[in-house]
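This part of the workshop introduces the protein records we will be handling. Getting from the letters to the tokens is the skill we practise here. An example says more than a description, so a record of this kind follows:
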Amino acid sequence: MTILSVNLNKVALLRNSRETTIPSVIAAAATCIEAGAQGITVHPRPDQRHIRVSDVYDLSEFLKDYPDIEFNIEGNPLEGPRDNGYPGFMRLVEDVRPHQCTLVPDDPNQLTSDHGWDLQGNSNVLAPFLADLEHWAVRSSVFLDADPKQVAYAPHLGIDRLELYTGPFADRFGQPGDADVLNDYIETARIATELGIGINAGHDLNLNNLPTFIRAIPELKEVSIGHAIIADALWLGLEETIHRYRHAVQPEIGV
């Protein structure tokens, strides 16, 4: 079964546009969970432009009342402490011990994540961070492009899951050649599953393209969606939006 994890970064971005506590990240998490979300995702960047360090600690405490809800923290393990109170990504993960940590090779100046790791070229970089996650009993997930050739390096690094970067799939969806793009994801997921590696996915998935992706990759364990959910919630409301995404991820549950 594929679970739906809701990324709350855009809720925090709206809040941070003014000196206020509205909208509340915690209240948004509660609404998502009550509406059927099975996970909460945050991607705290070093400049704290959306999710702040305090949000991570607050969510960790809040989610203690929801032991069945997965807490997933995304970020670049190479990011160290900053003068603005950011303690460094791996220090934050060590403090919080989420259910899952997704390692993403994003530059701090990027608007959003736009590529996965090169597992072959970055094996020595990733290995110590993956060892730390294993020691902390935190499931590891590594952001990866849909590239079947890269998957062979995952078992040697002890990676638990690969999160497929779905930006290219979303960009080509509904256009000529989109089946060829989707086939790369299908093959990457197939090889990973055969090697005992779980498959997650995220980036630019929405109500239009998500059903196709879900049907194509039955091995999919989790999708993490933020931007599209918050955008749809402007018209539908957050609760109704979560209902619709949950149905898209798990059609058998009904609307």
